[in-house]
Amino acid sequence: DFTGWYPDAGRVPLPTYAFDHRRYWPQPRENTGDSDDVDARFWAAVENADPADLAGDLAVDADALSRVLPALSGWRRHQRDQSLLDALRFHERWCPITGPTATTPAGPWVVVAHPEADAADVTDALGADCLRLDVADRRHAAEQLRDLPTDLGGVVSLLACRDGSAADGPDAVAGNVILLQALQDAGVDAPLWCLTRGAVTVDGAEPVTAPAQAATWGFGRVAALEYPRQWGGLIDLPATTDPAALARLTDALGGMGGEDQIALRAAGVYARHLAPARAGADGGGWTPRGAVLITGGTGGRGSRSPAGWPRTAPATWCCSAAA
Question: pTM for the whole thing?
């Protein structure tokens, strides 16, 4: 009873909103185990029973069975372990985005690109008040950002879109890092979107035409964790930015249901999701070609050859942290 301590205090109701719990971690598939009780008893006998007793139950030769039981037991353990791993395995899947058209945030947008890059189509798509900014270094970029309006709708980086050459991969990542740091230095809260072209593939038939730009996607996923409030997302552009692609770009910059890893294609807009992998879908083993580097060579990965590894493998190098 607080009335003795606070005689003038009044009671107020709790907020009326519901406490909505949302899980962000993917759920592994439930391991149902053995569905047939007879099979369960058989495998329990294989793993635990005395070979002589089991040979009597099966009416087979005990010596022959003793040579087979270790292999059966080992196979059974492997299948059980693989089943547990399958329940935890997820893979990348690009899903078409459907639903209402997103609304691009109001306020002037900033397009950041290399001086020699042609960003006119993206700049025009973001409106007449869109601003163009060149990043030379962190200090200079921060000074330019401080002079911009405070009601920015967002920042779009084209620093990774010069071309698909390998030399531009580290440069593009470094430029985007400098840009993100400059945004922090200038106190700009507008979301940063980094654009690439040909850095990801939405299906197996589509080639990755600019693998060096995929490094920007690695940077973006880390930036999203460290700066969730200032991070907008990653968008991979199609080979040709026609009017339809530019319209999809403005929709994607509006958020589209909170998606932050998006690929624009002629067929529509795709978002990167995690999906449970098909159980046992290991591709039938992996056969290495050329030189192979194994990290963690002194641990479990390097202790034995994986399934399908040829005994006469090409040059193989094992590395460990201790070495």
Answer: 0.67
